[in-house]
Amino acid sequence: MIVLGINAYHADSSAAIFKDGEMIAATEEERFRRIKHWAGFPSLAVEFCLREAGITLAEVDHIAIGRDPKAKFLKKLFFFAKNAATSFNFIKDRFQNLQNIASIEVELSKISGLSEASIKSKIHQVEHHRSHLASAFFASPFNESAILSIDGSGDFSTTMFAVGRGSKIEVIDSIDFPHSLGVFYTAFTQLLGFPYYGDEYKVMGLAPYGTPKYVEKLRDVILWKKGGLFELNLDYFRSASQGYVEYENNIPIVHSLFGKKMMEVFGPVRKKEEALTQYHKDIAASVQRFTEETIFHILKGLHERTGLTNVCIAGGVAQNSVANGKLTRNTPFKNVYIPSAGHDAGISMGAAQYVYHHTLSQSRVEPIYSAYTGAKFSNDEIEAVLKAANVSYKKYSDDELYEKVANKLIDAGVIGWFNGRAEFGPRALGARSILADPRRNDAKELLNSKIKRRESFRPFAPSILKEHVSEYFEVDDIVPFMEKVFPIRKEKQALIPAVTHADGSGRLQSVDAAISPAYHKLISTFYKKSGVPILLNTSFNENEPIVNTPQEALDCFLRTSMDMLVMENIIIER
Questions:
Q1: pLDDT more than 90, % of the chain
Q2: CATH of the domain at 522
Q3: What's the alpha-carbon Rg for the chain, to the nearest Å?
Q4: pTM attached to this predicted model
Q5: Are residues 317 and 412 both part of a single domain?
Q6: Backbone torsions φ then ψ of 148, nearest 5 degrees
């Protein structure tokens, strides 16, 4: 049975394809369009998934769309009726978006040649948050688990509580728009001078440089309720009836979410040219701390309702890796699973899984610990690109390659590493990565001067051999998707300064030889030479989506000061 999942006309549009419950391919449309968070119809991602599965759309049995316009329909009507005077543009935008969703069979017909009627008969609408729930639970190793979906908003919900058992998901509660932890975090992200969609990780990176002095003030912004529920104090925010997000040329644009009261209580918006003061850093620390406390509150309520010790989490707020690393130490949950694409790109994956398992009652399959579901290129394909560009290169055997790359890393080299299938999700996990020696005090400066040109307060992540996690981190856990931040052991921090953040933490990726054989071998070779089983890992890009093809990797190499580009068995050096 073939199920195609689609996230369309929503940020981070994507596609995923499953055969008999096994994920064959999954990718974001932005990797092809080269526009971050692209939000149109993911035609190129769909075509890629069909090619990877070796089929045509006619051979797909079910098409799962991660959106259900009928969800909470009466609540939507009541909201718009109550705010009719101020919500005209919001209603107009939502109506256009609904028309787009309704026309999906038209788009699929264009790329397949099939009739719209034949496609429409295969389509299932899966609510946004149910798709998130499914992407976490059905990919997890748990037969029974509590599940939490938490983000800005989708299908008029912002948070959803559920229990997963076997092939079924039972929703037990939800929180409706506009009461959203994602909206809270984004509003303060904007107040701190980071206005773009997806900038929230900058606040998370800035927080360790401050002191959480203003947590008590923030308790008036989010009001906790029994059972893990909460409400926003809407006095602090832009009127929800005016809408929070709109799409311009398929790019998500977030309006200023903060209101006059937020500026009165927490200060004016930081201007782009204005320096980050200690006050800004303290606000970031306070927002991050209170967000963590609110997540703990939510999860404690979910545990009270379910009595379970496993939890699966997805949604945009599930990308808060600092909070994720603290869950087992601050809630009753003992085991946590978060998918590689916990954000909205994972909607395509989750919608397909929901249809296959929950709707069609098909048995569970093996858990997903690999994010390598994207594009892959052979040595011959890479050589063709380099020859066309008249670029000199050398081809090496595997053993020669690992030796040469490890030596270059030790010699202060900054390396573009392009190997195997691209990752699904926002993190580079050793398939499309830029690598450096974590022992170097100047590695951050090297990377920012040569390539990334990003804020100095943002950390770089450690990729560590799975078998050495407990030697370097205070918490020993399997973290395949770089989704959790843990404290680095104090005695090791000076040894790996380039990946130790200001608070002594690191957002680790535990690298498993069975899942990432080439990357594991490279880190192992570096370990033999340096005594450190870790590499600094950051995404292979420069203010763009992560590179997807050899041409994009070469272009990034040529326009930056990267020292070496490695694509499969081929090396290009300056």
A1: 89
A2: 3.90.870.20
A3: 23
A4: 0.96
A5: no
A6: -130, 130
